[in-house]
Amino acid sequence: MTSEEPVIHIDGLTKIFRDFWRRPRARAVDGISLDVRPGEVFGLLGPNGSGKSTTIKVLLGLLHADAGEVKVLGRPPRDVDVKKRVGYLPEESYLYPYLDARETLRFYAALFGLAGAERERRIDELLDMVGLSHTGRRRVGEFSKGMARRIGLAQALINDPDLVILDEPTSGLDPLGTRQVKDIVTALAERGKTVLLSSHLLADVEDVCDRVSILYGGKVRAAGPIRELLQVAGHLQIRLGELDDSKRVELLDALEGILGQRPDLEPTRRDLETFFLEVVAQARRESGEGSGTRAEGRLAAFLTAKDEDAA
Amino acid sequence: MSERQGSFWPLARLTVVEIPRQPALLLLVTTLILFIGSLPFLITHNLGEPGKLVRDSAMAVMFLGALLLSATAACGAVSREIRRGTAGAILSKPISRTRFLAAKYAGVSVIMLVFAGMCTLAILLADRAAARQFQVGWEFLVPLFLAVLSAYALAGVINYFTRRPFASTAFWCMAVMLLLAFLWTLSLDGGSGAGVIDHGDHTHVDPMAGEAVPVRWALLPACLLLTFAALMLQALALFCALRLAVVPTLSICGGAFLLGLMSDYLLAGRAASALWARGLYILLPNWQHFWMADALTGGGQVPWHYVGHAAVYAGAWSLGILLLALGSFERMEVR
């Protein structure tokens, strides 16, 4: 694969689910085409049942395409060598309920041939990153949904993948966890990793994705860079710092003179996520850690290290 | 070791670790071992040869237990994982479907071998306990029951202090304890029991009571043959478990079990004249090749070269079933 080639290439992908008698039951994906370029954070958006997870499972070689061409890192999706370079977080955290967090990561690390001190170092860093280093021998079957999601995310990154596929990564996470996932995605992108992120939570996608495809009924309904898609043609926005009352009136009068109509002026608002994170950070400073996860928000060192160090 | 080679062992190892963590499996194994241990005092009619009924029944319990265990373990290792999504999560990693299936079979086979080993030890102990006419050899049964009891107690203590899962710890402890119990009874010759049995109003002289009761090592090849049969059942159960849940898997394995037991009676006569009968006779696993209880009557032995031939037959049949399973799994969609 050359650096110009897309990391994910899908051309005319169609997937039909059939019943026991091979009769078509549902056309889950209907002629989807998209390319994801190296180093890009690409969002697959759509409501439930729009074909996002099915597309991802075809990309992972778990489902067979009925029509169309699919290539991952320049090769067919079922190629075992391709999978060495892919990290996948499933829609549900599919974990072995009788294993504890460390055993789970040790197992997934072993599937990638990681062993010894390197494996233990990565496990320590990932457990610390997702805030589960204190769970000890507690079985993952006893974890809350958010904790299971975090361990799922850790296993997806254990091999320091070139392509990370995250299916609904923030589902079940609290706002702190959600913020952390977004930070991880941003950090991965900064290191030149490619991320395919599927979600129906629009704010998550908007925050981190470079480009998106919006799916509905198994078809791509809109696609392109987020900035372009969200631009409202003909509308402009002015951002101002602090203004006292007299200057505000003066400004409105001037704008009314130019535009012929008096514009609305509203104070700048933070979004709720930012406000929430500030409140929690303040509370944490005042009263220490709660009883849930204990994430410091630090990314695993091997994920932020330069490529030659991580290899 | 290359990365691709490395992916087999973690998966096989995980299967070995995960399956005994199912409480149902521990319950099944405990019941079967205790049942085998109870046979010497449940069966009192010896029909001439001391211990024959106990021996036959214990081997039958082992065979039937293998049938139940094969379905339970295979469904725990495969069908539940496919349904739960863990199979999909694993197959998204660098592991081929061939390797996945081979690792699963290897994992469940290890559990089956441990189970067969435990049953063999229990059968050897039960056989010694039933060797004397009208007298139960408690010196052989008490260690057996103590082994089960101490395994549970030890697992409880380990669980309390280390939080290791109780069910799997008890399973492995039971295997070790049964081995220790058996090794301990090797030091007993069984001849220390009184030859005169006091019935209160009269006494009875047991001609066997004063004699030593040696281990009937001839049971080993017979139990080994049953182990081969168990591994064949395991292959069939794994094939079924790819697409079916535990009840249909158990039904199909049960059907194959019954038909295989009767295949000589049902098909052997017709096999010479009818092609369908010949085909079915070859395809059906013939369990009579592995059932040597009658051969042991009257001090009979199972020759080791026969065990070798049976191993080849079991291996070939299992391989064929596993190849069919692989063909099915390669085309299968994992959601």
* Overall average residue pLDDT of chain B: 88
Query: Which segments of chain B are poorly predicted (pLDDT under 50) over 5 or more consecutive residues?
Result: 192-196
**Beta-strand level of the residues of chain A, as a percent range?**
15-25%
SSE ordering of chain B: HHHHHHHHEEHHHH
How far apart the termini of chain B lie comes to 31 Å
Number of domains as seen in the coordinates of chain B = 1
Structure summary, number of beta strands of chain B: 2
Helix proportion of residues of chain B, in percent? over 70%
- Inertia-based shape of chain B: flat
Provide a count of the helices of chain A: 12
Give the averaged pLDDT of chain A, no decimals: 85
What's the total count of β strands of chain A?
9
Largest sheet of chain B: 2 strands, antiparallel
**What is the rounded Rg of chain A?**
23 Å
- Category by helix and strand content of chain A: alpha/beta
List SSEs of chain A in N-to-C order: EEEHEHEHHHEHEHEEHHHHH
Tell me which protein chains meet in the greatest interface and how many residues each side has: A-B, 31 and 33 residues
The residue fraction in helices of chain A comes out at: 25-40%
Strand order of the largest sheet of chain B: 1-2
**Which residues of chain A form runs of ≥5 with pLDDT under 50?**
none
Helix count from the secondary structure assignment of chain B: 12
Structural account:
- The complex is a heterodimer of chains A (311) and B (335).
- Chain A has 311 residues and is α/β, with parallel strands linked by helices.
- Chain A has a domain at 245-286.
- Chain A is built from twelve helices and nine strands.
- In chain A, helix 3 (101-111) crosses helix 4 and helix 4 (116-129) packs antiparallel against helix 5.
- The two termini of chain A are 19 Å apart.
- The mean pLDDT of chain A is 85.
- Chain B is mainly α.
- Chain B is built from twelve helices and two strands, in the order H-H-H-H-H-H-H-H-E-E-H-H-H-H.
- A two-stranded antiparallel ribbon of chain B has the order 1-2.
- The radius of gyration of chain B is 22 Å and the shape is flat.
